[in-house]
Design brief:
The complex is a heterodimer of chains A (345) and B (445).
Chain A lengths: L2 H32 L8 H30 L1 H10 L1 H23 L4 H20 L1 H5 L4 E4 L2 E4 L1 H4 L3 H28 L3 H32 L1 H8 L2 H17 L14 H23 L2 E3 L3 E2 H4 L3 H31 L1 H4 L5
Antiparallel strand pairs in A: 1-2, 3-4
Helix pairs in contact in A: 1-2, 1-5, 1-8, 2-3, 2-14, 4-5, 5-8, 8-9, 8-12, 9-10, 10-12, 11-12
Chain B lengths: L2 H40 L2 H35 L1 H10 L2 H22 L6 H30 L5 E3 L2 E3 L3 H5 L4 H30 L5 H38 L1 H8 L10 E3 L2 E3 L4 E3 L2 E3 L2 H7 L22 H28 L7 H27 L4 E3 L3 E2 H4 L6 H29 L2 H11 L1
Antiparallel strand pairs in B: 1-2, 3-6, 4-5, 7-8
Classes of the chains: A mainly alpha (345), B mainly alpha (445).
The complex binds CIS-heme D hydroxychlorin gamma-spirolactone and protoporphyrin IX containing FE (2 copies).
Chain lengths: 345, 445
């Protein structure tokens, strides 16, 4: 592999990890708002139990992602920084309000409801804007004046493709997070909450799938170069669809451990994650070598080789150091029965 | 206003807001750690209560510090794409390593707060130490980028091209250690005096000798001792920072001191307003020869004046005032902690006079003002360069227009967050009084 390919793979890895974690994070915030009045099912508690310790860690991934872009592909960062000023600022503003109010809602208990509403609603808008980076990078909305790129916002926000992406981001955020929360509540023995989240994912799964089709359809009309390249990997797209179906079916089959209960959320989580992995691989592969079509490629955007080596080494050293920390964290909050099955809070 | 000016104001506002939470976020963990350790030593439950209440404060402040930091990090690319392109190419390491510091802080902060009852006491202390180290490392690393802006190294710059790039040499640029040391030490100053402010205020509000009064008196003494040590170290190190300016950015030092003519035996001007027309400082107190001595440890040191540089490369002259304010506050803080400690520990007086408590109340906000002055001095004093003598600020700004609306939006969100965070803290500590916490701790023990 060339250095450029290694670098873009690292970047893609960050995007993938962040999108799963962010989905979980923003989705959990939204569900904790939706079920705030239904004390009995404890669905809100489950969402909060996941959310409270994890949002900071998730947020760090978005910073890591931005830093990875400018240290691996500084030239691409120049173009992206210039064209994303408005959507990027919108994301930042929403993110600031969302994170702060999330923390406040856990502290000012008497005002929990209004504070949770603010953080839930601002949070669910963020994935829609985040994903807009993709259609923007497809190049059709970028204009060049005297060599300076700029984003035509009007063209962006009247494009069906953009709305298909937004719809997909929001529906799949809700789908994946309800799936993960279903699994989390089952592990925590909260069967009432489990039923609620199971129902939600049964509804949202098909909607996400429809949105994915909508993306492909609008892509064919608006960004044919990308569409045809993705279609070159049609077999992989079918494999991806197959995993989605496995995930869907496993939500209806009886559970292994308890024949009375329906659904095997753990299998669904794994199958759907694999599905996303394959689909985003196909998308990413079709996108290469362009980072911003057609002017910035991974070769033209790439950093200095000396800097790349140095950064690459810090990645390896950093992850070696952090790995035990992540494991410890995971054991304490995802795996510890005492934490998961607590009755208070 | 032109685009460049709005971009500068917008970024400056973001930084000025973030820095309040970030600096306290570096300083407070050290205070919490000190309280935890004092408890291990004395078994006095008051220290546990302090650690607990400061942790709560810290967790709330993180709720603003983290998103505003995220804004700062992303805004660098959005507003200064030309700058970040160079940084990405030459100086990516501090940002990269900083990510690990953020992760350590975030992971162990959550563990310390949400898993406190499930982990062993020694693990609590380790988690807290890692939080404090993570915060310190974030500050040191981000400051390294700022140090690089003033003393760039690790590349050759010819005909607009960056050649022979050595990212580690860039990382260990000449002013890294001095600057990072100054930021770290001054953050501990802020952490200590913010605590001192609150404690002094609460002492005035409670009856002399009551349980709550004594609780806050303990907190005050801890912060005066730490604050005294760190403000002394900050001043020493600040002196060294000034010597670095003398060596590496002479026009910045000249503007900071309002010195126009190059000379040996240069005087130090304190206070006053620099006047461009008459090339004097109006209303300043001048101490002969001192500037030469401060800059190079000898009275014959030749200090370069502004007139040796073309006027369009002069930094703005008001940085003289910012510099004075920072140094003035720094000296005052040393004095305050000395007076407090001598009064209590050596003269064995049992209560502070009221006026002194008021001075203590002011000390926290003053420390924050010193930080703000120091940063605005350092960043604005670098103008017109974003990377000293390599890249002009005007050449690195975004080509996008209409930043005005964004400026208003960001400003409103900072105002909203600033007001709510204060309201939430006040609400929380009014509901959960010191007395409740003390009684809870005593029952639990
Ligand atoms: C509590 C805060 C605080 C206090 C009491 C002081 N400083 Fe400071 N100073 C800072 C907080 C700060 C800062 C905000 O952290 C800065 C901004 C940039 C930097 O590196 O540190 C800074 C910058 C800064 C610089 C500029 C560095 C540059 O432009 O690259 C100099 C020369 C000094 N300081 C010198 C001093 C001296 C002689 C002090 C004597 C008491 C002093 N500072 C007290
Ligand atoms: C944290 C406290 C900080 C404050 C209050 C602060 C303040 C400011 C202000 C007021 C400006 C506008 C200067 C002008 O145009 O006159 C500015 C510019 C800038 N600062 Fe800082 N700054 C801080 C820290 C940093 C750090 C740590 C970095 C390094 C990453 C940094 C990098 C920049 C850059 C890139 C600009 C824009 C270009 C320029 O004006 O030179 N700042 N800052
Ligand atoms: C010297 C001034 C600065 C100091 C001392 C500082 C320190 C910190 C600290 C301690 C945190 C952790 C949150 C907290 O405790 O409140 C933080 C968060 C953050 N800071 Fe700053 N910072 C400074 C300037 C900057 C600048 C210039 C940037 C932009 C490049 C930046 C980017 C960030 C980011 C992205 C976060 C959020 C990290 C996360 O998501 O976990 N900071 N900063």
């Amino acid at each position: 592999m060339t250095n450029e390919l290694i670098a873009i793979t690292i970047l893609w890895g960050f995007v993938f990890i962040y999108s799963i974690m962010a989905t979980m994070d923003f989705g959990a915030g939204f569900w904790s708002m939706i079920y705030i009045n239904r004390k009995k099912t404890r669905a809100t508690n489950i969402a909060n139990r996941y959310l409270s310790p994890t949002w900071e860690v998730t947020n760090t991934f978005i910073v890591a992602l931005v830093v990875a872009v400018y240290s691996l592909f500084p030239k691409a960062a120049y173009t992206l920084g210039t064209i994303l000023l408005v959507p990027g600022s919108m994301i930042l503003l929403l993110l600031a309000v969302r994170s702060a109010f999330l923390v406040f809602s856990n502290i000012a208990t008497e005002y929990k409801k209004p504070l949770t509403y603010v953080s839930g609603i601002t949070g669910i808008l963020i994935p829609g804007l985040l994903i807009s980076v993709l259609p923007v990078a497809h190049g059709a909305f970028i204009e060049y004046e005297g060599g300076h790129p700029s984003l035509n916002l009007q063209k962006l926000f009247t494009s069906p493709n953009e709305y298909a992406f937004i719809g997909f981001a929001i529906s799949s955020t809700l789908f994946l997070s309800s799936l993960l929360l279903a699994d989390y509540s089952k592990t925590s023995n909260e069967m009432e909450a489990y039923k609620v989240y199971l129902r939600d994912c049964r509804i949202l799964g098909p909607i996400s799938l429809l949105m994915a089709f909508a993306i492909m359809l609008t892509l064919r009309a608006e960004t044919p170069w990308l569409y045809t390249r993705m279609m070159d990997d049609l077999p992989l797209l079918f494999v991806s669809l197959g995993f989605f179906l496995i995930g869907g079916i496993s939500l209806f089959l009886p559970s292994f451990s308890n024949k009375e209960e329906r659904g095997m959320p753990r299998i669904a989580v794994i199958a759907v994650t694999i599905q996303y992995f394959i689909a985003s691989y196909v998308y990413g592969k079709a996108h290469l070598p362009y980072m911003v079509y057609p002017n910035v490629t991974i070769q033209s955007g790439f950093t200095d080789p000396n800097s790349f080596m140095a950064v690459f080494i810090t990645y390896i050293a950093g992850f070696a150091i952090l790995f035990p920390g992540f494991i410890y964290f995971w054991r304490l909050f995802m795996h510890d029965k005492k934490y998961l099955r607590q009755k208070s809070s | 206003m032109d685009n460049l000016l709005i971009a500068r104001s917008l970024f400056g506002t973001t930084m000025a807001f973030h820095i309040i939470f970030a600096t306290i976020g570096v300083g407070l963990p050290l205070m919490i750690l000190t309280a935890e350790l004092l408890y291990q030593k004395t078994k006095d439950l008051d220290y546990v209560v302090m650690a607990k209440r400061w942790t709560k404060t810290f967790a709330v402040l993180l709720g603003v510090g983290i998103p505003t930091g995220t804004i700062a990090g992303v805004q660098l690319s959005l507003l200064w794409p030309g700058f970040m392109e160079v940084i990405g190419r030459v100086m990516p390491l501090p940002f990269q390593i900083e990510i690990y510091a953020f992760f350590i802080e975030a992971l162990f902060m959550s563990i310390y707060v949400y898993a406190a009852e499930r982990i062993a006491p020694w693990m609590r202390v380790i988690s807290l130490t890692l939080v404090a180290l993570g915060a310190l490392a974030s500050a040191v690393l981000i400051t390294n980028v700022h140090a690089f802006q003033g003393t760039p190294a690790g590349f050759r710059y010819e005909n607009g091209k960056f050649l022979d790039i050595n990212p580690w040499e860039a990382f260990f640029n000449p002013s890294f250690f001095v600057t990072a040391g100054h930021v770290a030490l001054s953050a501990y100053v802020v952490g200590a005096f913010v605590v001192a402010s609150v404690a002094a205020f609460k002492m005035m509000r409670n009856k002399y000798g009551s349980r709550v009064y004594l609780f806050h008196q303990k907190a005050l003494m801890v912060s005066l001792v730490l604050g005294g040590i760190f403000s002394f170290l900050t001043a020493i190190n600040g002196h060294e920072s000034a010597q670095y300016l003398h060596e590496y950015q002479p026009e910045k030092l000249a503007a900071a001191e309002g010195l126009f003519e190059t000379q040996s035996h240069a005087p130090l001007a304190i206070g006053g307003i620099t006047d461009r027309e008459t090339q004097t400082i109006k209303g300043a107190i001048e101490i002969p020869w001192l500037l030469s001595f401060l800059a190079g440890n000898s009275f014959d040191t030749v200090v370069v004046g502004l007139n040796d540089f073309p006027e369009e490369l002069w930094p703005p002259l008001f940085i003289h005032t910012l510099f004075n304010a920072m140094v003035g506050i720094g000296s005052l803080l040393i004095l305050i902690s000395l007076v407090g400690i001598v009064w209590k520990k050596f003269m064995k007086k049992d209560r502070f006079p009221k006026w002194f408590l008021w001075v203590l109340v002011a000390s926290g906000p003053l420390a924050v003002i010193a930080i703000e002055c120091g940063w605005i001095f350092a960043c604005t004093g670098r103008q017109p360069w974003v990377i000293y003598r390599v890249l002009a600020t005007a050449d690195s700004v975004t080509s996008a227009t209409n930043l005005g609306v964004l400026f208003l939006l960001f400003f409103s969100v900072y105002a909203l967050l600033g007001i709510t965070v204060v309201a939430v803290l006040l609400y929380f500590f009014r509901k959960n009084t010191e007395l409740d916490d003390i009684q809870k701790a005593e029952k639990g023990a």
